[in-house]
Amino acid sequence: MDNTYRIHVVHADASGGPVRLRVLLVHHEPWWDRTMLLPSDPGFFLQVLREAADGDAGRPRGPLAGEVGEAQLLDAAFVRANAHRFVARVERVAVRHHPVDDALAEYYRNAYDTLDHLYYAGTFNGRYRPGEHGPLEERLVQAEYDVWPTDPRWTQTLRAGQCWGTRAWGPIAQAEASVRLGWVLWDDDPEGAAAAFRHAIELEHGDPYAKVEARLHLDALLTGQDQYAAQDQGADAPLELALRLHAEGHEEEARAAYAQAVSRGDCSIGGVFLGGASVIAEARRRAGMESPAEYGYRLAQAGDLSRAAAELRRIYDDGSARVAAFALALCEGAFDRADEVSGGSLEGDLAGTWMGQFAMDLAFVHARAGHTDTARRLADLADEGLNSGPFLHALASGSARPVELAVERGTALVDKIVNPAWDDGIEAIVDVAREHLPELAVYACRAQAACESAYGQEENAARWRARLARLEATGPFH
After folding, report:
1. What is the C-alpha to C-alpha distance for residues 263 and 397, in angstroms, rounded to an integer?
2. What is the mean pLDDT of residues 102-125?
3. Would you list the DSSP string of 291-351?
4. What is the predicted pLDDT for the residue at 205?
């Protein structure tokens, strides 16, 4: 997410004098330039004043909404050229918590969900509670500005005490604004939409995730796709884009496209959800791209936690940053913190499934590094109950290396779930393992055949022995 802000009206003046606005930085990626976080130009405040008069989300309707359209506000060239018509002058009169130090950057990173809820708390929607939200706001990067309008009409809807999370775009957020502009223009002005997407792509600085969105939308627009259908496309388009950007040396954008591809993965085998496993495998095979756990762990070890968190939030987005917080804690070796985030269980919902997949992937990362104890602890964490999903995800994604640990974990899993009354779990293991770890597929078939026979279910046992014979015919297994 680009920089996002909250607005507080500190002082309003119906006569046309200056209004005082407090601007608070709610979200930012701390690995970007920490000196470019607060707005300073009239263009930002044109957007704020127009938003305060747009009649949406409980806000009043004012004259400025009739003077400036939504699309115009998202057009950086228009905003730069016309801001002076509405905002005569802006003066920053106070600044707090800026520039950002490491402790505040950590707070922004770890309090992502809390701050996300704060962003949506405003006086217009009745969600703002000063006693709860005020102390949070006190911790944030913020500044106060005196803003002089060119006409009293432009500030007539403002009242002291109003506050809301604004969509006004500020420093380094121009790419996201251009993507939003392209989306608005898609149907009625496709040429204008294409120009907006190209503008986002060509910006020298900006959010790599927004630039990837622009590339994907532009491709969809130029091929005549419906904008909503394009938004719901699967993993193939972002994966191919990631591989192309990687080959061209645009690594930030390549990882952004990769994150989107993995997040869209929806592979399932035998009723076991494997998510983006096939995407991870393909990107690894064709370009040597790191899995989410490999990438996150490497960045964490280098102290680049915020960059790791940014990717993890996008891959594992269930409407919260829980999975990313869990994954980041594991990358730092903070098992107690991870347990607190997960609530002590990885079973029951999509977030738990993702947590298990990440933990198992990271277990193999540690195993390859020779950290045997940590690898086993992570694998045990992921292997909760009778859940085969994390191991099968690691196997299908190509992350289950070294083979020795994969065989050890796989055979232990087979021994745990083999059952004469329900063989779907073994079916799923065989389906995945026959391609990625054939000796495990053989072991699973033998185990299920023996189990069926032991319970007198000879017809089922014969079926599993026949499957075992087909597997053994393809190679020397033990």
Report:
1. 14
2. 93
3. PHHHHHHHHHHTT-HHHHHHHHHHHT-SSSSHHHHHHHHHHTT-HHHHHHHHTT---SSHH
4. 78
CB-based contacts of 98, cutoff 8 Å, min separation 6: 37, 38, 141, 142, 143
Average pLDDT value for the chain: 93
Percent of the chain topping pLDDT 90: 82
Cβ neighbours for 123, distance < 8 A, ≥ 6 positions apart: 161, 162, 163, 164
Is the separation of the CB atoms in 384 and 346 below 8 Å?
Answer: yes
Rg over alpha carbons for the chain, rounded to the nearest Å, is 27
The β-bridge partners of 22 are 8, 144
Please count the residues of the chain: 478
Which residues contact residue 350 at a Cβ distance below 8 angstroms, ignoring those fewer than 6 apart?
318
pTM higher than 0.90 for the full model? yes
How many CA atoms lie within 13 Å of 90's alpha carbon, on the beta-carbon side? 21
Identify which of 243, 247, 199, 238 has the alpha carbon closest to the alpha carbon of residue 220.
Answer: 238
Rounded to 5°, the CA angle 432-434-440 comes to 90
Q: pLDDT for 267-321, tens place per residue? A: 888 788 999 999 999 999 999 999 999 999 999 999 999 889 999 999 999 899 9
